Amino acid sequence: MRPFLAAAAVAVLSLAACSDGGRQETNSDTSGGGNAAGSSGYTVAFVTHETPGDTFWDKVRAGAEQAAKDEGVTLKYSNDPDAGKQAQLIQSAVDAKVNGIATTLVTPDALAGAVKSATTAGIPVVGLNAGIDQYQKLGALMYFGSDETVAGTSVGQRIAAAGAKHPLCVIHQTGSVSLEARCAGVKSAVPGTENLQVNGADDSAVTTTLQAKLAQDKSIDYVVTLGAPVALDAINAKQQASSPAKIVTFDLNQEMAKRIKDGSVEFAIDQQPYAQGYMAVSSLYLYLKNGNDLGGGKPVLTGPSFVDSANIDKILPFTEKNTR
Amino acid sequence: MTVATAEPRTRTRPVRLGALLARPEVGALAAAVAIFVFFLLVAPSFRSSASFFTVLYQSSTIGIVAVGVGLLMIGGEFDLSAGVMPISAGLVNSMFCWYFGVNLWVGAVLSLAFCLAVGFLNGWLVMRTGIPSFLITLGTFFVLQGANLGVTKLVTGSVSSSDISAIDGFASLQKVFASSFTLGSATVWITVLWWILFVALAAWTLQRARVGNWIYAVGGSADSARAVGVPVVRTKIGLFMTVSFLGWFVGMHSLYRFNTLQAGNGVGNEFLYIIAAVVGGTLLTGGFGNAIGAAIGAFIFGMTSLGIVYAGWDPNWFKAFLGVMLLLAVLVNTYVKRLATKGRPS
Questions:
Q1: Which single residue of A133, A251, B72, B302 has CA 20 to 30 Å from A125?
Q2: Rg of the Cα trace of chain B?
Q3: Searching chain B, which residue's CA lies closest to the CA of residue A8?
Q4: Which of B58, B93, B100, B154 to mutate to test the interface with A (most CBs of A within 10 A)?
Q5: For A9-59, how does the pLDDT look when each residue is reduced to its tens digit (9 = 90+)?
Q6: Where do the TM regions start and end (chain B) (predicted)?
């Protein structure tokens, strides 16, 4: 299929007026010389609360898939943003008698029953991404993720040091515990922090709402967005409202890396989703193969890691490969 | 009965009042004026022309599709795929041109053809099978939503489309779909002008053109319409294609304004379009409503969503406010309609 597509591309390129700025033809092979899938004989179920279409989860999954490839593990990925359905996905992994389960624990109470039935069946469970305070209580062995409140606080401390008095924290999903925790963290370092709810599913709505807010309150000096796409809208809104506010953001993607490079965004705070996915699968592999326990009974933090003008040149190529 | 025997002199006044009240947009217009005055009073930063045009811009991004959805609802059908259609349109354009490195105009035309085809398929399936459009378009909605994600991931390796700002044709397309100019201290986005044009076109069609009569007829009763020689199938399929054309238009705007698109976006907007049309006096049962009403509905939406922010209130409450608005609009519409039909002699 690839040679055909490439040939078709060449044909179209020579027919239509060739235009720059499109896809770069690359010969890089993403397989990276791992083992054949399943050669270690382990099957790992990977369950998340991903809402389809979020660049963040894309990277978690890419990391998990790379780890599975490197270690010869068969990976079964499934996801559902609804807590009850996620519990069912864990339960069905237990029923399928997988060797290990990696799951996000965003709604610990709803998932407790399913995790318990996994541990009673003797299937090791590791937590990732969310549930840092509850994973041990639920019976998960290890945890890979960042502490949202710690991450929020470190953003708050950094902008406070830069003189922030009245930051605006933009929540793009209603009722999300982790997003609220990030803003609470920012507020703990900068008491003047104000939260703003926007409709993250519609870029025009995000832009106009932010624009309206920046026009309404000229004292806002920082805009803290909790996802990279929202930060891109914030850049638009800031220009429209001709606001002097600086923009900082959680999470990273390729566009965002470019905006950090050109200075329109001060910095991004990265919880390294690729590493979360990779480590969750690898830790199960090590546990099954060798009885290893990572983190010494404590959660393993994959962030917060700051990305700013100082280190963007090193990180930009990784964002282009969709691994950071 | 009593009306028939009443004196002609007393008959004229209730009829004229009834005719005024029978206009679908009257309730919405009253609500819009009330909300506008309300925000002028409570939100100081709402009072500038810059804010007014920001509100108009926000309204236009909903309103352009809402006009089409309003026409379709007058014609007695729903389109739930209208929310993700703009994203599909933008993604088709963006990814085709990015993958093959061709001029963006090629992709824009291709994307238009794609959207019209989806609209045609919606209409054709509804007419051919007799299954309610609610179900058919719910199906296309899910298909488009899934395909948006699946295809984007396959082509770009990520779930957002790639940067296309360096591809040929970007500047000229941006002029058409996503340019802006300043008017005094305000920025006017071109979508506002397009919105007004589309509304005017739709209003003219409904009031003056033969197709307009057909739309009311097929929405009122498809069987009677068919009996008097209205081309029901053609009219309804045309309406579905109108909605997808307008969806394409908004998709082009998003693409050339934001350059990259999130493949999972747009979900939920289909209800905003329906809300705008209903608040504007369109009946869910079809056969009643007009384009100006849908436009006012979209304006109310834009005004409340941003007015709350301009007033400095907690926007968490916005959805609750919207729900109350919707209920009030429906109540007013039902009341007005009953009043209007009571005053009519026959």
A1: A251
A2: 21
A3: B100
A4: B100
A5: 544 444 455 566 777 765 544 444 445 555 788 999 999 988 777 778 889
A6: 26-43, 55-76, 96-121, 133-151, 186-206, 237-255, 267-284, 291-311, 317-336
Interface of B with A in 144-183 (CB under 8 A): 145-146, 148-149, 153, 157-160, 162-170
- CA separation, residue A78 to residues A2, A4, A88, A216, B249 (Å): 27, 31, 11, 43, 35
Summarised one tens digit per residue, pLDDT across range B148-181 is 999 998 888 778 888 898 899 999 999 999 999 9
Residue A294, token pair as written in the block:
């990572």
- Kindly report the length of chain B: 346
Q: Which amino acid is at B107?
A: G
The fraction of chain A above a pLDDT of 70, given in percent, is 89
**Which top CATH class is A36-146+272-293?**
alpha beta
- Select the CATH number that applies to the domain covering A148-270 from these four: 3.40.50.2300, 3.40.50.620, 3.30.190.30, 3.30.300.30: 3.40.50.2300
Largest interatomic CA distance in chain B: 77
pTM of the model: 0.80
- B287: amino acid identity, one letter: G
Mean pLDDT estimate for chain B: 87
Domains A36-146+272-293 and A148-270 share a fold: yes
B294, with CB counted inside 10 A (0-12, 13-18, 19+), is buried
- CB-nearest partner of B159 from A58, A174, A209: A58
CB–CB contact B103 A17 (8 Å): yes
Tokens of B128: 């051919």
Domain positions in chain B are 22-339
pLDDT digits (tens, 9 = 90+) for B257-302: 988 888 888 888 999 999 999 888 888 888 888 899 999 999 998 9
Please, are residues A67 and A46 in contact by the beta-carbon 8 Å criterion?
Answer: no
Query: In CATH, what class is B22-339?
Result: mainly alpha
Give the closest-approach CA distance of B97 to chain A in angstroms.
Answer: 7
Q: How is chain A split into domains, by residue range?
A: 36-146+272-293, 148-270
Would you call B158 and A204 a contact, using CB atoms and an 8 Å cutoff? Answer: no
Query: What ipTM does the predicted assembly reach?
Result: 0.72
